Amino acid sequence: MSLWRSRRAGSYLALVAGTTVAATLLYNYGMATLENDPQPLYRSLEVVFQTFTTTGYGEDAPWSTPQMNFLMIGLQLTGIGLILTGVDIFAVPWLRSALATTPPTTASDLEDHVIVCEYSPRGEAFIEELESRGQEYVVVESDEGAARELHETDRRVVHGDPESIDVLEDAGIERARAVVADAADDTNASIVLSAQEANPEIRVVTLVEDQRLGEYHRIAGADEVLSPRQLLGESFAHRVPTAVTTAVDEGVEIGNDLELVELSIAEGSDLCGQTADAVGLRNRFGVDGIGAWFNGDFESPIPPDRDLETGTRLLVAGEPDRIDELRAEAASTVHPFAARRVVIAGYGEAGMAAGEALAATNTRVTVLDSDDKDGVDIVGDARDPATIDEVGIDGASAVIITLDDDTSAIFATLVVRDLDPSVDIIVRANDAENVQKLYRAGADYVQSLATVSGRMLASTVLEDEEVLAVDRQVDVVRLPAGELAGRTVVDADVRSRTGCTVLAAVRDGETITEFDPATFVFEAGDEVVIAGTDESVRSFETLFLD
């Protein structure tokens, strides 16, 4: 809206006009009755303007009566107030607009880049992945304020409507390698159609919140349709101890004889309360301890003097038989195998996926949601202790919280933990920055939707990267060896420099899991399978990949 047509500016102009008329009449009356010097209204109007603009008073000064002097003091103060108000309404916004950074509307210098439509927390991890790999990209953002913030933080951005063919052409779609549509589900379908018209050969990847709508993205022409909420919900179900699954996640197979597993130290298990050194992962079980999560913080390598308490999650790699031995020791010796009950708070895409996965096990599921819809057992607010009491979490093996708002999820976690200190709480964080808050609130396991989305996009768009476990707290990736060629893992000091652990080498399509890190020399064209946090994987990419 134009500044001159805004409600605030109109109110100010009306105030000036009303004040001027009132001051003119009052001054004209004062000159006639108090100073005994009647004059035309236009003369009084001139004096008022002289006063309000602080340019002088002409022949009327000085005034002989105290009343007129006080009147003039009031008019002078009124004029100063109007001037300052006018500066705030007109001058300050104009200067702010004139000095503000204008986001770009074209990206004519980019080639073989990725076009991201639009910016969202889900795509942040993907953008960081692109930047760490030196992969060119541009974000098409329709909101001018958001586009300006991205530009000011040195992110490549084009301000414009991503559904517009002209805007996509300004973003260089003719020269791009891929388009990622990360807006609302219906908007993404429109972006796909526009991208296909602007460049029929372009590869288009979309993210979908409602998996049922993914088919329409494919009909529109999308090459890949990703559903991170669905994947995350299924992953949460696998982390719930039930009658047919222990409190341990399914492993990630790396080759034929190596498995990477996250497992929890259960209360009452043989390992609970022992130090990592006393457990002897390598000597006793023949597995490598990659790292461990202590209260949500990942530490690699595992400190040998650190106690493995209840809920500590280990990340280990080894042969499947060896993993099974450790799995048995980590499980509770009093693990019940009767039917278990799980509470799901939030029945969106992720909650439904978790419920469907749990339905295949001998598990009773109680669903809580704020909306009354199919599959919901209790309608209410997950942040309300009375509602949680109505759900009845006593005796439940786990509570899965998949709410759309992280603030609500944090509060719901606090409520559940206060009502039942022993229940397992599994939570979805929409933004990665809220993961630690959820752990501090009492969650046992947290996974970020933004992180999962970024990993799925990276594995789909980047041809030389394969993410082997997108739904885990740790990133497991197969990457080119890069500058590791001609060196060993020990020579390159990979773990201390990046925080990653090299699990395997891939040479001529064969995965080599048994190799001596001190003597095995990587060759040009080899690939590596590494495990670590998202930050440590990006460090590896920065150090060893051009």
TrEMBL record:
Q: Which residues form the RCK C-terminal domain?
A: 248-332, 462-546
The GO biological-process annotations, alphabetized, read as: potassium ion transport
**Could you confirm whether the keyword Transmembrane helix appears in this record?**
yes
Matching Gene3D superfamilies:
NAD(P)-binding Rossmann-like Domain, Regulator of K+ conductance, C-terminal domain
Pfam families this protein is in? TrkA_C (PF02080), TrkA_N (PF02254)
The record ties this protein, via PROSITE patterns, to: RCK_C, RCK_N
Q: Which UniProt keywords apply?
A: Membrane, Transmembrane, Transmembrane helix
Q: Per the record's keyword annotation, is Metal-binding included, yes or no?
A: no
One MF term in GO for this entry?
monoatomic cation transmembrane transporter activity
Give the stretches traversing the membrane.
Answer: 12-30
UniProt-recorded name of the protein: NAD-binding protein
Name all RCK N-terminal domain ranges: 111-227, 339-447
